[in-house]
Amino acid sequence: MRIRGLILVTLAALSAGCSSIEPWVKPYDRENLADPIMSFSRAPISQDFLDHVFESREGSRGASGGGGGGCGCN
Amino acid sequence: MKSAYTRLALFVITCLAGVAHAGVLPEDRADVLYFRYDGGGVVINGPSVLVRKSIGEHVSVAANYYVDMVSSASVDVETSASPYDDERTQSSLSLDFLHGKSTYSVGAVKSDESDYLANTVFASLSHDMFGDLTTISFGFKKGENEVFRNVKIDGVKMNDPTFAETMESKSYNVSISQILTKNLIMSAQYEVITDEGFLRSPYRSVRFFIDPFSQGQQSEIYPNTRSSNAASVRAKYFLPYRAAVDAMYRFYTDTWGVMGHTAELGYVHPLPDNKWIFEGRVRYYTQTDPADFYQDIFPRADYANFMARDKELATYDAITAGITATYEFKVERFPWLSKGSLNLRYDYMQVNYDDFRDARYSLGSFGELPEEPLQPGTEPLYKLDANILQFYISAFF
Questions:
Q1: Is residue A58 scored above 50 in pLDDT?
Q2: Is position A12 within any domain?
């Protein structure tokens, strides 16, 4: 019962937080994140080839995408 | 061996769709790459061309053309077949649609090889929220593959008319990218992949003891399904003097019993002249659990329902270290070219296997026995060294 109450309080706090979230890193503060050196994959064509090399030799696969990185504000 | 090639399609998708950031279309660019992989008796080289262009303010198109020229005398090939040359071509097209804070992506990849045809389609959605600090993405891919087997009849290489199989692959992934501070970004990704159909190589064999001093070989036998889970986290931090460090960790497990851990560290360092950028990268991979049905040598013929001797499914560690040098330039005569770059990347890879032995010491090479064959199961463990070279030119518009 106490756990259920705790979950409800947590969810209420989270939902209240979501509705009033203010971006704590303002757009004008994202100069460093927008620098091309901050991209998770600066050269997709090269990373693509290298990922293939690893995939061909390893049992693991998936969840290796760089996802772009940077701040998406270029 | 061949199925591994088709996975490139999945990575091309990552490349084509992954660079799309919700809320902003990817920048227009063109890249031409030449690569060469040389290791373990295998040489692969070829070109790859990637072009990305915006159409209006809401659409971006990307196309990739890639050619693999393979010359293989790998340890598997040496102990069970003849060396071969092959060529694979792959073309892909993707479209990104920007609508408000969301980016919708669709695309297709087609890969042709003499004994493998692969067609993959994909779709993904990315959405920016919380003042563009957070991006969430969902993606789905579906691949349909046809597997053939090359044989030589009267000295002519052709598909075995008695052999044709299929394989279907589906992938579901979700990722979140989060700006944490004005210098730090993190992302996490989770991907499930399911395969169904013909999942082994049509060429590779397993070996088994006939008695303690002699061995035989038979075709591998694989399950018809495989489901995998992979979860990764990565972070990149901007250093005070304009440089960046990044780190990545990935955990992997699948229904075949394989478990793997990947860790990577990178450092990007531009010189103050804004022309040269150097990047160093170290990647460590350890496969702690092999596939349940993998053995280097089985106790007898037909030992189990499923039997594999693919070193990709064995237990091993691999380390790769690489460096990239980038020279950026502008051309006064071409004002439409915002930036160009020349890039040279070299990586050295070493793989040390814990339970895959170098069977050339007992089986010989291409049918020729060694002068003093070792007892099966006592051969030295196999190691692989590879040199990987890439040269590419990028142009940004």
A1: yes
A2: no
- What the block records as the tokens of B174 is 């979700």
pLDDT at A72 over 80: no
In chain B, the number of structural domains is: 1
CB B319 within 8 A of CB B283: yes
Question: DSSP assignment of A29-68, as one string?
Answer: G-HHHHSGGGBS-S-HHHHHHHHHHHHHH-S--S------
Domain ranges, residue B11: 2-396
ipTM: 0.88
Number of H-type helices and E-type strands within chain B: 3, 20
| Residue A48 is assigned to a structural domain of this protein | yes
Contact B8 A55 (CB under 8 A): yes
Q: Which domain holds residue A37?
A: 23-58+68-74
- Count of domains observed in chain A: 1
CATH value at residue B173 = 2.40.160
List per-block mean pLDDT (blocks of 10 residues) for chain B, which spans 397 residues. Answer: 45 45 81 96 94 95 94 85 84 95 95 93 94 93 94 87 95 96 96 96 93 93 97 97 96 98 97 94 98 97 96 97 96 89 97 96 87 93 97 95
User: B-contacting residues of A 16-55, CB under 8 Å?
Assistant: 21-25, 27, 29-33, 35, 37-38, 40-55
Q: Contacts of residue A30 in chain B, CB cutoff 8 Å? A: 179, 182
B64 with A45: Cβ contact below 8 A = yes
Interface check A63 vs B, CB under 8 A: yes
